[in-house]
Amino acid sequence: MNNNQNYLVPGAIVLAGLLIAGAVIYVQGLPGGKPTTGLEEGTVGNPVEVAKAIGLNTKDFQECYESGRYADDVDADVVAAEAAGGAGTPYFVIVGESIEGAVIVSGAQPKANFEKALDMARGNADLIAYDENIGFGYLANLSESISPEDHIRGNVDAPITIIEYSDLECPFCQVVHPTIQSLVSENSDVSWVYRHLPLEAIHPSARPLAEGSECAAELGGNDAFWAFLDKVFEE
C-alpha cells in the first residue's frame, strides 16, 4: 500500500471559469463536510446568530461587529499564515520545546498523522523532512511564537502548541476540528492556538465569522471565542 494514502490533503482549491458559474473545484477526493453558507438570518453563517446561540448580548455584539475593529487583527493572522507557508486551509504549525523549527500538517489529515507530528515535536520520533506532496513533515527554518493576543485552548503552559490557520467556512476545517479537540483533551502537554486565514474569494462568510469570533472574545473572553468556533463548526 502506498503510504501516501494515509494523508488527506486538500491540495489546491481553484476558482473556475470567467465568473460564468463561479464554480469552486476541490482537487483530490477529500472527506466531506457541510460548510457554513451565507449571512442570512437564522443561519450559522451569520455572526450575530452565532453570538446569540452561545449566549452573548446581541446588541453589544452587533456594535462590536459593525465597528469593524477587528479587521486588522484578522489581516495580521493572514500575514502570519503566509509567512509560515500557509496557502490553503486548514494549515497547522506544531512547535515544541524539544525541537528547533516546526512540524507542518496541511489539510484534514487523520488523527494518527497528528499524533505522529506531536511525537516529532516532543523529540520522541525522527524528524521527517517536509514533503509538500503529502502536506506533512518538519521544517527546520520555521519559527513561530505565541503572543498575548492569541486564543489558546488547553494547558497554557504546555510545551507543545498546535497553531491552526483556518477558515470558519472551510469544510475541511470543519472535518478536522473535532480531531484537534480530542488531541488537546487527551494530551496535557499540548495546547491549541487558532488563527484566521479566511479564503474570501470562495468563502464569503469567512471574514465576517472571523471578525465575529474576535468580538465574542472581547465580550466573553477566551471561552466565548472557542464556543463561537465550536458552534460554527458543529452545524
What report would you give on this structure?
By secondary structure, the chain is of the alpha+beta class. It has a domain at 80-196. It has helices at residues 47-53, 58-67, 71-83, 111-122, 171-186, 206-234; strands at residues 13-15, 24-26, 91-96, 102-106, 136-139, 151-154, 160-166, 190-196. The strands form two sheets. A six-stranded mixed sheet has the order 5-4-3-7-8-6. Strand 7 (160-166), helix 5 (171-186) and strand 8 (190-196) form a beta-alpha-beta unit. The protein starts with 12 loop residues before the first strand and ends with a helix.
How does the SSE layout of this entry go?
Elements lengths: L12 E3 L8 E3 L20 H7 L4 H10 L3 H13 L7 E6 L5 E5 L4 H12 L13 E4 L11 E4 L5 E7 L4 H16 L3 E7 L9 H29 L1
Parallel strand pairs: 7-8
Antiparallel strand pairs: 1-2, 3-4, 3-7, 4-5, 6-8
Helix pairs in contact: 1-2, 1-6, 2-6
Family: Belongs to the thioredoxin family. DsbA subfamily.
Organism: Candidatus Colwellbacteria bacterium CG10_big_fil_rev_8_21_14_0_10_42_22
Protein name: Thioredoxin domain-containing protein
What is the terminal separation in angstroms? 35 Å
Quickly count the helices. 6
Beta-strand portion reads: 15-25%
Tally of DSSP β-strands? 8
- Mean pLDDT comes to 86
Using only C-alpha atoms, the radius of gyration works out to 17 Å
Based on secondary structure, the structural category is: alpha+beta
Q: Write down the overall geometry.
A: globular
Low-confidence stretches: 1-43
Largest sheet: 6 strands, mixed
Order of strands, main sheet, comes to 5-4-3-7-8-6
Helices and strands, in N-to-C order?
Answer: EEHHHEEHEEEHEH
Helix % is 25-40%
